[in-house]
Amino acid sequence: MSEDLIVGVIGAGTMGLGIAQVAAQAGHRVVLFDARKDAVPAALANLGDTLARLVAKGKLSEEQARTVHGRIVPAEELGAMASCGLLIEAIVEQLPVKQELFRALGSMVGPQAVLASNTSSLSITAIAAASARPERVIGLHFFNPAPLMPLVEVVPGLATAPALPLELHALMLRWGKSPVVCKDTPGFIVNRVARPFYGESLRLFEEGVADMATIDHVLKQQGGFRMGPFELMDLIGNDINFAVTRSVWEAFFNDPRYKPSLIQQRQVESGRLGRKTGRGFFDYSGAAAVPTLQPGPELATAITERVLAMLINEAADALFLQVATKEDLDLAMRKGVNYPKGLLAWADEQGAAHWAAVLDDLYQEYGEDRYRASPLLRRMARTGTTFY
Ligand code: NAI
User: Which domains does the chain possess?
Assistant: First the structure.
Protein backbone atom coordinates (compact mmCIF):
# COMPACT_ATOMS: atom_id res chain seq x y z
CA MET A 1 0.00 0.00 0.00
CA SER A 2 2.50 2.56 -1.17
CA GLU A 3 1.94 6.03 -2.61
CA ASP A 4 1.43 4.61 -6.10
CA LEU A 5 -1.61 2.76 -4.82
CA ILE A 6 -4.62 3.94 -6.81
CA VAL A 7 -7.67 4.51 -4.64
CA GLY A 8 -11.15 4.03 -6.04
CA VAL A 9 -14.02 5.79 -4.29
CA ILE A 10 -17.57 4.75 -5.10
CA GLY A 11 -20.26 7.26 -4.15
CA ALA A 12 -19.45 10.96 -4.57
CA GLY A 13 -21.73 12.27 -1.82
CA THR A 14 -20.72 13.86 1.48
CA MET A 15 -18.50 11.02 2.63
CA GLY A 16 -17.17 9.81 -0.72
CA LEU A 17 -15.92 13.26 -1.69
CA GLY A 18 -14.35 13.79 1.74
CA ILE A 19 -12.56 10.44 1.55
CA ALA A 20 -11.39 11.17 -2.02
CA GLN A 21 -9.92 14.47 -0.79
CA VAL A 22 -8.12 12.75 2.10
CA ALA A 23 -6.64 10.11 -0.23
CA ALA A 24 -5.58 12.72 -2.80
CA GLN A 25 -3.98 14.89 -0.10
CA ALA A 26 -2.05 11.80 1.00
CA GLY A 27 -0.59 11.63 -2.52
CA HIS A 28 -2.73 8.96 -4.18
CA ARG A 29 -4.36 9.05 -7.55
CA VAL A 30 -8.10 8.66 -6.95
CA VAL A 31 -10.78 7.37 -9.28
CA LEU A 32 -14.23 8.67 -8.28
CA PHE A 33 -17.48 7.06 -9.42
CA ASP A 34 -21.14 7.65 -8.72
CA ALA A 35 -24.25 6.01 -10.14
CA ARG A 36 -25.78 9.46 -10.64
CA LYS A 37 -24.15 11.03 -13.69
CA ASP A 38 -24.08 14.61 -12.40
CA ALA A 39 -22.81 13.66 -8.91
CA VAL A 40 -19.07 13.50 -9.70
CA PRO A 41 -18.86 16.84 -11.57
CA ALA A 42 -20.85 18.48 -8.75
CA ALA A 43 -18.55 16.88 -6.16
CA LEU A 44 -15.43 18.05 -7.99
CA ALA A 45 -16.83 21.60 -8.17
CA ASN A 46 -17.44 21.43 -4.41
CA LEU A 47 -13.91 20.21 -3.87
CA GLY A 48 -12.62 23.18 -5.87
CA ASP A 49 -14.41 25.52 -3.44
CA THR A 50 -13.10 23.65 -0.40
CA LEU A 51 -9.53 23.74 -1.70
CA ALA A 52 -9.84 27.44 -2.55
CA ARG A 53 -10.87 28.10 1.07
CA LEU A 54 -7.84 26.14 2.30
CA VAL A 55 -5.62 28.25 0.03
CA ALA A 56 -7.24 31.45 1.34
CA LYS A 57 -6.58 30.32 4.91
CA GLY A 58 -2.95 29.61 4.04
CA LYS A 59 -3.29 25.87 4.71
CA LEU A 60 -2.41 24.87 1.15
CA SER A 61 -0.50 26.62 -1.62
CA GLU A 62 -2.28 27.20 -4.92
CA GLU A 63 -0.05 24.63 -6.53
CA GLN A 64 -0.83 22.04 -3.84
CA ALA A 65 -4.55 22.67 -4.30
CA ARG A 66 -4.21 22.19 -8.07
CA THR A 67 -2.23 18.98 -7.56
CA VAL A 68 -4.77 17.54 -5.11
CA HIS A 69 -7.68 18.39 -7.41
CA GLY A 70 -5.84 16.97 -10.41
CA ARG A 71 -5.26 13.66 -8.67
CA ILE A 72 -8.99 12.92 -8.57
CA VAL A 73 -10.16 11.46 -11.85
CA PRO A 74 -13.87 11.08 -12.62
CA ALA A 75 -14.99 7.64 -13.77
CA GLU A 76 -17.83 7.19 -16.23
CA GLU A 77 -18.30 3.55 -15.41
CA LEU A 78 -17.73 1.22 -12.49
CA GLY A 79 -15.35 -0.74 -14.74
CA ALA A 80 -12.81 2.07 -14.30
CA MET A 81 -12.23 0.70 -10.79
CA ALA A 82 -10.43 -2.36 -12.18
CA SER A 83 -7.02 -0.67 -11.86
CA CYS A 84 -7.49 0.32 -8.21
CA GLY A 85 -5.68 -1.36 -5.34
CA LEU A 86 -7.97 0.01 -2.64
CA LEU A 87 -11.66 0.63 -3.21
CA ILE A 88 -13.71 2.54 -0.68
CA GLU A 89 -17.46 2.39 -0.96
CA ALA A 90 -19.55 5.32 0.34
CA ILE A 91 -22.91 4.73 -1.34
CA VAL A 92 -26.42 4.60 0.10
CA GLU A 93 -26.77 2.79 3.46
CA GLN A 94 -28.78 -0.22 2.24
CA LEU A 95 -27.46 -3.74 2.60
CA PRO A 96 -28.82 -5.19 -0.69
CA VAL A 97 -27.44 -2.22 -2.68
CA LYS A 98 -24.01 -2.51 -1.04
CA GLN A 99 -24.01 -6.30 -1.53
CA GLU A 100 -24.79 -5.85 -5.22
CA LEU A 101 -21.86 -3.44 -5.55
CA PHE A 102 -19.44 -5.76 -3.72
CA ARG A 103 -20.58 -8.66 -5.89
CA ALA A 104 -19.71 -6.62 -9.00
CA LEU A 105 -16.41 -5.33 -7.59
CA GLY A 106 -15.31 -8.77 -6.43
CA SER A 107 -15.20 -10.08 -9.98
CA MET A 108 -13.67 -6.90 -11.41
CA VAL A 109 -10.56 -6.02 -9.41
CA GLY A 110 -7.19 -7.77 -9.00
CA PRO A 111 -6.71 -10.52 -6.37
CA GLN A 112 -4.72 -8.23 -4.06
CA ALA A 113 -7.19 -5.33 -4.16
CA VAL A 114 -8.83 -4.32 -0.89
CA LEU A 115 -12.56 -3.72 -0.88
CA ALA A 116 -13.55 -1.35 1.92
CA SER A 117 -16.95 -0.12 3.09
CA ASN A 118 -17.61 3.15 4.89
CA THR A 119 -20.88 1.84 6.35
CA SER A 120 -21.85 3.20 9.79
CA SER A 121 -24.40 0.60 10.71
CA LEU A 122 -24.33 -2.47 8.48
CA SER A 123 -22.45 -5.70 9.13
CA ILE A 124 -19.13 -5.86 7.28
CA THR A 125 -19.44 -9.65 7.36
CA ALA A 126 -22.80 -9.46 5.57
CA ILE A 127 -21.46 -7.07 2.92
CA ALA A 128 -18.35 -9.25 2.45
CA ALA A 129 -20.38 -12.42 2.05
CA ALA A 130 -21.78 -11.10 -1.22
CA SER A 131 -18.36 -10.62 -2.79
CA ALA A 132 -16.43 -13.55 -4.19
CA ARG A 133 -13.51 -12.63 -1.90
CA PRO A 134 -14.65 -11.88 1.66
CA GLU A 135 -11.04 -12.16 2.87
CA ARG A 136 -10.22 -8.88 1.05
CA VAL A 137 -13.23 -6.97 2.43
CA ILE A 138 -12.97 -4.65 5.45
CA GLY A 139 -14.78 -1.73 7.08
CA LEU A 140 -13.11 1.66 6.91
CA HIS A 141 -15.42 3.97 8.81
CA PHE A 142 -14.58 7.65 8.41
CA PHE A 143 -16.38 10.38 10.35
CA ASN A 144 -18.04 13.43 8.90
CA PRO A 145 -16.40 15.66 7.65
CA ALA A 146 -13.76 13.11 6.61
CA PRO A 147 -10.97 15.64 5.88
CA LEU A 148 -11.32 17.15 9.39
CA MET A 149 -12.29 14.27 11.66
CA PRO A 150 -9.21 12.23 12.58
CA LEU A 151 -10.90 8.96 13.60
CA VAL A 152 -11.15 5.98 11.27
CA GLU A 153 -12.61 2.73 12.59
CA VAL A 154 -10.96 -0.23 10.85
CA VAL A 155 -13.39 -3.16 11.01
CA PRO A 156 -12.44 -6.66 9.89
CA GLY A 157 -15.36 -8.97 9.11
CA LEU A 158 -15.47 -12.61 10.08
CA ALA A 159 -13.64 -13.76 6.95
CA THR A 160 -11.21 -10.82 6.56
CA ALA A 161 -7.55 -11.87 6.16
CA PRO A 162 -5.76 -11.30 9.51
CA ALA A 163 -3.05 -9.09 7.97
CA LEU A 164 -5.52 -6.64 6.42
CA PRO A 165 -6.51 -4.62 9.55
CA LEU A 166 -2.83 -4.00 10.30
CA GLU A 167 -2.11 -2.90 6.73
CA LEU A 168 -5.03 -0.48 6.73
CA HIS A 169 -4.18 0.79 10.19
CA ALA A 170 -0.70 1.64 8.90
CA LEU A 171 -2.12 3.26 5.76
CA MET A 172 -4.54 5.41 7.77
CA LEU A 173 -1.64 6.61 9.93
CA ARG A 174 0.16 7.63 6.74
CA TRP A 175 -2.96 9.52 5.70
CA GLY A 176 -2.66 11.50 8.94
CA LYS A 177 -5.64 9.79 10.56
CA SER A 178 -6.13 8.27 14.04
CA PRO A 179 -7.17 4.69 13.24
CA VAL A 180 -8.58 2.17 15.70
CA VAL A 181 -9.32 -1.49 15.06
CA CYS A 182 -12.64 -2.89 16.25
CA LYS A 183 -14.80 -5.96 15.89
CA ASP A 184 -17.69 -6.13 13.48
CA THR A 185 -20.35 -5.41 16.11
CA PRO A 186 -23.32 -3.00 15.89
CA GLY A 187 -22.26 0.65 15.97
CA PHE A 188 -18.57 -0.38 15.97
CA ILE A 189 -17.01 1.70 18.78
CA VAL A 190 -18.29 5.26 18.65
CA ASN A 191 -21.90 4.73 17.62
CA ARG A 192 -22.26 2.09 20.34
CA VAL A 193 -20.35 3.61 23.25
CA ALA A 194 -21.82 7.11 22.72
CA ARG A 195 -25.47 5.96 22.88
CA PRO A 196 -26.01 6.73 26.60
CA PHE A 197 -24.87 10.32 26.11
CA TYR A 198 -28.15 10.83 24.26
CA GLY A 199 -30.30 8.08 25.76
CA GLU A 200 -29.62 8.77 29.43
CA SER A 201 -29.96 12.52 28.95
CA LEU A 202 -33.34 11.94 27.31
CA ARG A 203 -34.35 9.82 30.33
CA LEU A 204 -33.25 12.56 32.73
CA PHE A 205 -35.42 15.03 30.85
CA GLU A 206 -38.34 12.62 30.58
CA GLU A 207 -38.30 12.11 34.34
CA GLY A 208 -38.25 15.84 34.93
CA VAL A 209 -34.88 15.81 36.68
CA ALA A 210 -33.97 18.97 34.75
CA ASP A 211 -34.88 20.76 31.53
CA MET A 212 -32.90 20.22 28.34
CA ALA A 213 -30.91 23.43 28.47
CA THR A 214 -29.89 22.66 32.05
CA ILE A 215 -28.77 19.13 31.19
CA ASP A 216 -26.71 20.54 28.30
CA HIS A 217 -25.26 23.23 30.55
CA VAL A 218 -24.26 20.78 33.29
CA LEU A 219 -22.66 18.24 30.96
CA LYS A 220 -20.58 20.99 29.38
CA GLN A 221 -19.63 22.79 32.57
CA GLN A 222 -19.12 19.84 34.85
CA GLY A 223 -18.59 16.99 32.37
CA GLY A 224 -16.29 18.96 30.07
CA PHE A 225 -18.15 17.81 26.94
CA ARG A 226 -17.82 20.22 24.06
CA MET A 227 -21.54 20.17 23.30
CA GLY A 228 -24.55 19.20 25.38
CA PRO A 229 -26.57 16.14 24.29
CA PHE A 230 -29.66 18.07 23.19
CA GLU A 231 -27.84 20.69 21.13
CA LEU A 232 -25.74 17.87 19.67
CA MET A 233 -28.83 15.83 18.69
CA ASP A 234 -30.20 19.00 17.07
CA LEU A 235 -26.94 19.44 15.16
CA ILE A 236 -26.75 15.80 14.01
CA GLY A 237 -30.46 15.82 13.18
CA ASN A 238 -32.98 14.00 15.36
CA ASP A 239 -33.99 11.81 12.43
CA ILE A 240 -30.40 10.59 11.95
CA ASN A 241 -29.64 10.26 15.67
CA PHE A 242 -32.91 8.40 16.31
CA ALA A 243 -32.26 6.07 13.35
CA VAL A 244 -28.75 5.23 14.62
CA THR A 245 -30.07 4.47 18.12
CA ARG A 246 -32.85 2.35 16.70
CA SER A 247 -30.50 0.43 14.42
CA VAL A 248 -28.03 -0.29 17.26
CA TRP A 249 -30.93 -1.36 19.55
CA GLU A 250 -32.38 -3.67 16.89
CA ALA A 251 -28.98 -5.08 15.98
CA PHE A 252 -28.48 -6.01 19.65
CA PHE A 253 -31.82 -7.85 19.63
CA ASN A 254 -33.58 -5.07 21.56
CA ASP A 255 -31.15 -4.86 24.46
CA PRO A 256 -32.82 -2.30 26.80
CA ARG A 257 -29.50 -0.50 27.23
CA TYR A 258 -29.95 0.99 23.76
CA LYS A 259 -33.72 1.46 23.80
CA PRO A 260 -34.73 4.48 21.69
CA SER A 261 -36.56 7.37 23.34
CA LEU A 262 -40.24 8.12 22.74
CA ILE A 263 -39.49 11.79 23.32
CA GLN A 264 -37.07 11.78 20.41
CA GLN A 265 -39.47 9.78 18.26
CA ARG A 266 -42.19 12.41 18.76
CA GLN A 267 -39.65 15.05 17.85
CA VAL A 268 -38.97 13.27 14.56
CA GLU A 269 -42.68 12.74 13.87
CA SER A 270 -43.33 16.44 14.28
CA GLY A 271 -40.57 17.37 11.85
CA ARG A 272 -38.57 19.11 14.58
CA LEU A 273 -35.36 17.59 13.32
CA GLY A 274 -32.93 20.18 14.66
CA ARG A 275 -30.89 22.96 13.14
CA LYS A 276 -31.64 21.85 9.59
CA THR A 277 -35.39 22.50 10.07
CA GLY A 278 -34.95 25.57 12.28
CA ARG A 279 -36.44 23.76 15.27
CA GLY A 280 -35.50 20.66 17.21
CA PHE A 281 -35.28 20.38 20.96
CA PHE A 282 -34.42 24.06 20.77
CA ASP A 283 -35.78 26.83 18.58
CA TYR A 284 -33.15 28.26 16.22
CA SER A 285 -35.23 31.16 14.96
CA GLY A 286 -34.26 33.46 17.80
CA ALA A 287 -31.71 33.71 20.60
CA ALA A 288 -29.91 30.65 21.95
CA ALA A 289 -31.62 28.76 24.76
CA VAL A 290 -30.48 29.66 28.26
CA PRO A 291 -30.83 27.33 31.25
CA THR A 292 -34.06 28.17 33.04
CA LEU A 293 -32.87 26.47 36.16
CA GLN A 294 -29.58 27.20 37.85
CA PRO A 295 -28.69 23.74 39.09
CA GLY A 296 -27.26 23.40 42.57
CA PRO A 297 -24.05 21.36 42.94
CA GLU A 298 -25.94 18.25 44.04
CA LEU A 299 -28.20 18.17 41.02
CA ALA A 300 -25.31 18.96 38.67
CA THR A 301 -23.29 16.07 40.08
CA ALA A 302 -26.25 13.70 39.95
CA ILE A 303 -26.82 14.45 36.25
CA THR A 304 -23.19 14.19 35.30
CA GLU A 305 -22.61 11.00 37.28
CA ARG A 306 -25.62 9.24 35.83
CA VAL A 307 -24.69 9.97 32.21
CA LEU A 308 -21.00 9.32 32.79
CA ALA A 309 -21.64 6.05 34.65
CA MET A 310 -23.68 4.80 31.69
CA LEU A 311 -20.97 5.86 29.20
CA ILE A 312 -18.21 4.26 31.27
CA ASN A 313 -20.26 1.10 31.62
CA GLU A 314 -20.70 0.95 27.86
CA ALA A 315 -16.95 1.36 27.25
CA ALA A 316 -16.10 -1.19 29.95
CA ASP A 317 -18.54 -3.68 28.47
CA ALA A 318 -17.11 -3.16 24.98
CA LEU A 319 -13.68 -3.97 26.46
CA PHE A 320 -15.15 -6.97 28.31
CA LEU A 321 -16.56 -8.27 25.01
CA GLN A 322 -13.23 -7.61 23.24
CA VAL A 323 -14.65 -5.14 20.73
CA ALA A 324 -11.34 -3.23 20.83
CA THR A 325 -8.34 -2.60 23.07
CA LYS A 326 -8.71 -0.13 25.94
CA GLU A 327 -6.39 2.28 24.14
CA ASP A 328 -8.47 2.15 20.96
CA LEU A 329 -11.74 2.49 22.88
CA ASP A 330 -10.45 5.66 24.52
CA LEU A 331 -8.86 7.04 21.36
CA ALA A 332 -12.08 6.51 19.40
CA MET A 333 -14.17 8.60 21.79
CA ARG A 334 -11.61 11.41 21.88
CA LYS A 335 -11.04 11.55 18.13
CA GLY A 336 -14.49 10.55 16.84
CA VAL A 337 -16.76 12.60 19.15
CA ASN A 338 -14.30 14.96 20.86
CA TYR A 339 -14.78 13.62 24.39
CA PRO A 340 -12.47 15.48 26.76
CA LYS A 341 -10.98 12.19 28.02
CA GLY A 342 -11.11 8.54 27.13
CA LEU A 343 -13.91 6.93 29.13
CA LEU A 344 -11.74 4.20 30.65
CA ALA A 345 -9.05 6.66 31.70
CA TRP A 346 -11.88 8.79 33.12
CA ALA A 347 -13.24 5.77 35.02
CA ASP A 348 -9.87 5.30 36.73
CA GLU A 349 -10.08 8.74 38.34
CA GLN A 350 -12.75 7.58 40.79
CA GLY A 351 -12.22 3.86 40.37
CA ALA A 352 -14.44 0.99 39.22
CA ALA A 353 -16.08 0.59 42.66
CA HIS A 354 -17.50 4.11 42.45
CA TRP A 355 -19.03 3.59 39.00
CA ALA A 356 -20.34 0.12 39.83
CA ALA A 357 -22.04 1.65 42.89
CA VAL A 358 -23.69 4.41 40.82
CA LEU A 359 -25.00 1.77 38.41
CA ASP A 360 -26.15 -0.54 41.19
CA ASP A 361 -28.11 2.32 42.78
CA LEU A 362 -29.83 2.97 39.44
CA TYR A 363 -30.50 -0.74 38.99
CA GLN A 364 -32.01 -0.92 42.49
CA GLU A 365 -34.18 2.08 41.90
CA TYR A 366 -35.49 1.19 38.45
CA GLY A 367 -35.20 -2.60 38.32
CA GLU A 368 -34.33 -2.27 34.63
CA ASP A 369 -31.76 -4.36 32.82
CA ARG A 370 -30.68 -1.12 31.16
CA TYR A 371 -28.69 -0.30 34.32
CA ARG A 372 -26.85 -3.62 34.73
CA ALA A 373 -23.16 -3.05 35.43
CA SER A 374 -20.68 -4.73 33.10
CA PRO A 375 -19.15 -7.87 34.65
CA LEU A 376 -15.75 -6.29 34.00
CA LEU A 377 -16.57 -3.20 36.06
CA ARG A 378 -17.88 -5.39 38.87
CA ARG A 379 -14.79 -7.62 38.77
CA MET A 380 -12.51 -4.58 38.87
CA ALA A 381 -14.48 -3.11 41.75
CA ARG A 382 -13.98 -6.35 43.68
CA THR A 383 -10.27 -6.58 43.03
CA GLY A 384 -9.54 -2.86 43.20
CA THR A 385 -7.88 -2.82 39.76
CA THR A 386 -7.75 0.06 37.28
CA PHE A 387 -7.88 0.14 33.47
CA TYR A 388 -4.46 1.75 33.13
P1 NAI B 1 -24.77 10.72 0.31
O2 NAI B 1 -26.22 10.50 0.06
O3 NAI B 1 -24.26 12.08 0.51
O4 NAI B 1 -23.93 10.08 -0.92
C5 NAI B 1 -24.17 8.81 -1.44
C6 NAI B 1 -23.81 8.82 -2.92
O7 NAI B 1 -23.81 7.47 -3.39
C8 NAI B 1 -24.83 9.59 -3.78
O9 NAI B 1 -24.13 10.53 -4.56
C10 NAI B 1 -25.49 8.51 -4.64
O11 NAI B 1 -25.80 8.95 -5.94
C12 NAI B 1 -24.41 7.43 -4.67
N13 NAI B 1 -24.91 6.09 -4.91
C14 NAI B 1 -26.00 5.50 -4.38
N15 NAI B 1 -26.11 4.23 -4.80
C16 NAI B 1 -25.01 4.00 -5.59
C17 NAI B 1 -24.54 2.86 -6.30
N18 NAI B 1 -25.18 1.71 -6.25
N19 NAI B 1 -23.37 2.98 -6.97
C20 NAI B 1 -22.70 4.14 -7.01
N21 NAI B 1 -23.12 5.26 -6.38
C22 NAI B 1 -24.25 5.18 -5.67
O23 NAI B 1 -24.40 9.75 1.54
P24 NAI B 1 -23.21 9.90 2.61
O25 NAI B 1 -23.71 10.68 3.77
O26 NAI B 1 -21.98 10.31 1.91
O27 NAI B 1 -23.08 8.39 3.11
C28 NAI B 1 -22.47 7.39 2.34
C29 NAI B 1 -22.10 6.21 3.22
O30 NAI B 1 -21.25 6.65 4.27
C31 NAI B 1 -23.27 5.50 3.90
O32 NAI B 1 -22.97 4.14 3.99
C33 NAI B 1 -23.28 6.13 5.28
O34 NAI B 1 -23.87 5.31 6.25
C35 NAI B 1 -21.79 6.29 5.54
N36 NAI B 1 -21.43 7.31 6.51
C37 NAI B 1 -22.06 8.52 6.54
C38 NAI B 1 -21.68 9.49 7.46
C39 NAI B 1 -22.34 10.82 7.49
O40 NAI B 1 -22.23 11.51 8.51
N41 NAI B 1 -23.03 11.26 6.43
C42 NAI B 1 -20.62 9.23 8.44
C43 NAI B 1 -19.95 7.94 8.26
C44 NAI B 1 -20.38 7.03 7.35
Answer: 6-181 (3.40.50.720), 192-383 (1.10.1040.50)
